Amino acid sequence: MIENDNANRTQEFMQEQVNKVFEFWSGNLKLPTIGPVYAFSKDFTSFANDFVTLGKVMIELKSNMDSYWSLLGTAYTRAITDTVEQAPTQIAKKEDFEKYRRAAIEAFEESFTDLFTSSEFSEVHGKLLGTQLNLSRVMQSILEKNLKTLNLPTRSEVDEILKDIAELKRDMRDMKRSLEARNDQARIAT
Amino acid sequence: MTKQELQPDQKEDQAGQPMQNQQEKWKKKEPILAEEIQEAYRRFEKARNILHTAGNVGVGETPNEILVEKRAYRLLHYQQRVNRTARTPILVVYALINRSYVLDLQPDKSWIRSLLSQGFDVYLIDWKAPTAADKYVSFDDYVNSHIDDCVETVLQKNKVEKLTLHGYCMGGTMSTMYTALHQDKVRNLAVIAPVIDGQRDFTVIGNLAKNMDVDKMLQVTGNLQSEQLYAFYLTLKPFKQGINKYLNFLQNIDNEQFVDNFLRLEKWLYDTPPIAGETFRQWVSDIYQKNLLVKNEMKLSDKIVDLSMIKVPLLNVIADEDHLVSPECSAPLNDVVSSTDKRLMRFHTGHVGLIASLYSQNNVLPKVGQWLVARSQ
């Protein structure tokens, strides 16, 4: 318990420091959003923001990764303790080894399944996944800006087109269905 | 052992045959252990050779014809095995996770083959893997476009007005949605382990889904990739399925039937196409996190999926040991529909055991068939 509290406090402290550093650099990068300074610096500001965000996300990722591995470590320790308690103390025969294997599998299965079905793991897993996605998002943003120089449609632009196509297909389907229904009604009426 | 006895071995070692002599020496000292190690090595070698060619193992071998093939699916029609005695055709809706051949994994454990043998006319929707261009394909497309098109095709081919919709897992959920919206085309709804009440799913998947930012996932990764699904699979029975299963495989390496069953199921387990991004977002957000389906608040396009509108005969088959969809998550379907003819069947097996095992052939299918026959004339 005390160890967990200390770990949580350290994590909070780290998060606080990261936010301060992030705010400091964000503040330094504040430039006018109109006029000539904006016109010449908009790309720089955008890139600089991406790199500052990248640093922040990477620190968050490290912190969430630590929480994740800490939970796995606790489950592992519990599994080992249970195995030692349940398995034969001496392995002299082949059957003893078999019993040890069964006890170990049962202990590990129970310990890790309890972990994976716990609300604590669900939260930590959700945070970790979210930070990994944030990292991918920042990297995609940096790449996308660089790829613009090739004068090709960007991923976001293609994405918009895909969304439009999906909606158009649904509209077509609905129109086709309503036309069929009307034709059926007309056929019945005649 | 005397010094004199050791001397000849030492001389041979110097002559260039040290390994062989050491093995011989060891065999004499620890005969049982040496035999065990040799046996284990033989099993490893055999397993390695078997797994090297395992990709060719035959699955989904019941004869069928492809009735319709589109970018999203293939509609299969199975050849009859006996005279058709049931007038109402069955359209099987498979899930969007892994491949549909689990329903026809091998001749003696085939769900499809058993239905054919009981006199049914069987069709199956075999979903194709979505590409990056299918990121915005949603449940609306699967239910109101693809399933509806397949239903129309089957009705026209059999010259009937209604059919039996038969879904497994996520396919059961989609069949339920379809029935709620297009009841006029459905005579019976028979579902196996459908996800209905997301809040009562106590599995690892249900737990992880609660805190997943799926909107961000859709934005960043698009479709849910196979690798992400494999990562989820690793958390399901991690040691029994992840380690013990392979140790059992090694122990039974000389049992041809065991090996054959193992390879087919293993092939299916890791034959995982991606899931369309928007569909996955709705699956997690609407069904698991907001629990909209059981509350009759889920929307497909502009239509509400109201399960209380379902009045057709309902069969809900669930497994007590299901570690992918909790029985508590599937069972509420029988409480929310308005059908007067409804039945909940519980079996003491798991999610896959329910459809692809000898237990299923001997215990589940005869009862399911009996229920369907009585409502298919």
| Domains of chain A (count) | 2
Structural class of chain A: mainly alpha
Distance between the termini of chain B: 85 Å
- The succession of helices and strands of chain A, N to C, reads HHHHH
Order of helices and strands of chain B: HHHEEEHEHEHEHHHHHHEEEHHEH
Instruction: Report the radius of gyration of chain B as a whole number of Å.
Output: 26 Å
Secondary structural class of chain B = alpha/beta
Commentary on this structure:
The complex is a heterodimer of chains A (190) and B (377). With 190 residues, chain A is mostly helical. Chain A has 2 domains: 2-152, no CATH class; 153-190. Helix content of chain A is 87%, strand content 0%. In chain A, helix 1 (2-28) packs antiparallel against helix 2, helix 2 (35-86) packs antiparallel against helix 3 and helix 2 runs antiparallel to helix 4 (119-147). Chain A is flat. The mean pLDDT of chain A is 86. Chain B is an alpha/beta fold and 377 residues long. Chain B has a single domain (64-374), classed as 3-Layer(aba) Sandwich (Rossmann fold). In chain B, 45% of the residues lie in helices and 14% in strands. Chain B contains 15 helices and 10 strands. Chain B has an 8-stranded mixed β-sheet with strand order 1-2-4-3-5-6-9-10, with helices on both faces. In chain B, a hairpin with a 2-residue loop joins strand 7 and strand 8 (303-304). Chain B is globular, with a radius of gyration of 26 Å. The model of chain B is unreliable at 1-15 (pLDDT under 50). Classes of the chains: A mainly alpha (190), B alpha/beta (377). Chains A and B meet through helix 3, helix 4 and helix 5 of A and helix 5, helix 7, helix 8 and helix 10 of B.
